[in-house]
Write a structure and sequence with these properties.
7 helices; 8-stranded antiparallel β-sheet; 329 residues; 5-stranded antiparallel β-sheet; elongated; alpha+beta; 2 domains
Length: 329
Amino acid sequence: MSRSLVVLLTVGLGAGIAVNAADLLPARLGSFVRRTSRPAPVPDPAVFAEFGFVSSDSAEYHGATAKGTITAYQMRDSTGAFAAWDWLRPNNFHRCAYADHCATDGKRYLLLASNYVIDFENIVPKANDWKQLQTSLPELRPGDLPPVLNFVPVTNLVPNSARYILGPNSLRAVAPELLEAKPGFSEGAEAHYSAYKIGGSVAKLVLFDYASPEMARLHVIDFKAVPGTLAKRSGVLVAVVLPGVPEKQAQELLDQVQYRAKILWNEPPPPSPVPPLYRLLVNIVILSVILSALALTAGLVYAAMRIYRRRHGTLEEEEAMTTLHLSGD
């Protein structure tokens, strides 16, 4: 990938994208110090425009014993960044352990961080350096990955063949024959492309995700009309196997796509027992105080009545209080 300082403006099918310079990377990263910084051109501007490309930054870092380049691609959201990560990942890369989506060939590391894709060249990122870099990225927007990924078949999957699709330009790059079916990207449709080795053939599957089963039901008719394709609907998903594979193998792949809806009950959590117990104790204390006050008041009233009657001679003999005249004798 070229690292020269350029401003790239490419228009494809009415959509344009410019590589914008931005200070996305920190001045220091662990033991490495940034020496130069420049915008990084994207490999396919029309496709990255669909992914929500915002800006990029490529910087050369020097350490005590090594030097290399770190490139950051900023996207609008995590879905666009995931699509860009798929697009930037070379076929010979394998998984690494720095993040859930990390790929490497031993010299270059490509990592996904929320709405960013980070590319390390000739720098092996340490765990602490990776954490520091994530906290320093401006306008970091964590988000969930596309739900369609939960339904992508994994049996016989060709490594690194996956591509996420967010518009006609990214679809044209992997499955141009499906453009005539008008997949419905303007209606919010998204898709996932992957290849599979089945019975000596390579089957190519595009899995479309729609907002409702009704939308999927309407679009699957158009996909079935594309010559050579085999398509089926499952819930909000439409799975399409591209031409060039025997029907039996294509059907075997389609059978693996099963949509399972997740129903979330919006129920309030059970109430805590502490507040009712607290209110009960408070009420007991209040009631005890009230009863004590009533008993004291009744005693004082009774005592006052006896004193009054004694002084005015209305106290009867049998009502007199018996007093024990006890002495020390």
